[in-house]
């Protein structure tokens, strides 16, 4: 009798869970998170992007086999299938958690078809193997790339007392302060804030070079510098429309273009990295 109660309670809990997720289905995005052990095959834990380059090798090897199957080139088929076999089995060595996801049947069939010179079947089997690859990519590629390839700015600093995050917020406020000032015909205040913004951009550029190791300065580049000069001149002599256009151009070049690459990736990384409790998951703040 006690077991029947236990089973009933478990079923109720399951139904309640299903109901909760159903009610919140439009407010929740579900992603499959890869095992944390995959981080050992990405920088900075590893000197190289080992996992990524293994995937590149597999893609190249599968393409080579398809090319030489069409050409019926047995010598190159044998060479490339040996490489494919070696690199495909590395997945299980690097990530034992995903060993059961490997399509070893297709790998064996490719080798068999090459041996028997069944060239059309080689291509067909490669397509089946590709479906297996794409299935795993659908589940994990976006989350894995976001977690382990997106930049992490949380510990970066402009100097000993100013974090990168707070510095970015300050510059965002300065852009809006410039707008407020020239709209209200306070050109001196707008020029003063522009001067502060320019210093802030140069300070930001000094840490950009830690990753962007180019010969020329990555940020602010010549185009942004010229746009700031144009904005400065328009704040002195230009019309309200010209001032707005100049500030808008600066915001696109100096803010939006970098944010489109860096901030989107960083924000997504934070969302996936931060553990959510049930309260955070279920609460409504709309």
Descriptive report:
The chain is 71% helix and 0% strand. The protein has 286 residues and is an all-alpha fold. The chain folds into 2 domains: 95 residues, no CATH class; 110 residues, no CATH class. The longest helix is centred in the last third of the chain and has 34 residues. The mean pLDDT is 89.
Number of strands: 0
pLDDT < 50 runs, ≥5 residues: none
What is the mean pLDDT?
89
Coarse structural class = mainly alpha
Largest sheet: none
Backbone shape? extended
SSE order, one letter for each helix or strand: HHHHHHHHHH
Which value, in Å, is the CA radius of gyration? 28 Å
Question: How many domains make up the 3D coordinates?
Answer: 2
Helical content class:
over 70%
Strand content: under 5%
Number of helices: 10
End-to-end C-alpha gap: 45 Å
Provide a short characterization of the protein structure.
The protein has 286 residues and is mainly α. Helix content is 71%, strand content 0%.
Key features of this structure:
286 residues; mainly alpha; 10 helices; 71% helix; 0% strand
Question: How are the elements arranged and paired?
Answer:
Layout: H1 2-23, H2 50-71, H3 74-94, H4 104-115, H5 119-148, H6 164-183, H7 187-208, H8 222-237, H9 240-273, H10 278-282
């Amino acid at each position: 009798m006690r077991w029947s109660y236990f089973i009933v309670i478990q079923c109720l809990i399951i139904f309640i869970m299903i109901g909760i997720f159903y009610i919140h289905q439009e407010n929740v995005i579900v992603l499959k998170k890869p095992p944390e052990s995959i981080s050992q095959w990405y920088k900075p834990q590893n000197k190289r992007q080992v996992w990524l380059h293994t995937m590149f090798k597999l893609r190249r090897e599968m393409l080579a086999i398809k090319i030489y199957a069409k050409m019926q080139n047995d010598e190159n088929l044998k060479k490339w299938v040996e490489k494919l076999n070696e690199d495909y089995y590395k997945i299980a060595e690097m990530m034992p958690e995903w060993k059961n996801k490997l399509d070893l049947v297709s790998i064996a069939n490719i080798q068999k078809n090459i041996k028997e010179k069944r060239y059309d079947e080689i291509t067909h089997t490669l397509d089946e193997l590709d479906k297996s690859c794409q299935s795993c990519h659908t589940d994990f590629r976006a989350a894995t790339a976001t977690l382990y390839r997106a930049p992490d700015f949380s510990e970066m600093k402009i100097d000993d007392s100013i974090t990168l995050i707070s510095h970015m917020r300050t510059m965002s406020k300065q852009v809006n302060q410039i707008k407020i000032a020239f709209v209200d015909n306070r050109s001196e205040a707008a020029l003063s804030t522009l001067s502060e913004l320019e210093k802030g951009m140069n300070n930001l550029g000094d840490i950009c070079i830690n990753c962007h190791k180019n010969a020329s300065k990555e940020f602010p580049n010549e185009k942004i510098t010229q746009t700031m000069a144009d904005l400065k001149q328009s704040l002195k002599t230009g019309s309200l429309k010209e001032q707005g256009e100049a500030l808008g151009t600066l915001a696109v070049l100096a803010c939006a273009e970098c944010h489109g690459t860096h901030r989107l990736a960083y924000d997504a990384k934070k969302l996936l990295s931060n553990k959510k409790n049930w309260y955070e998951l279920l609460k409504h703040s709309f």
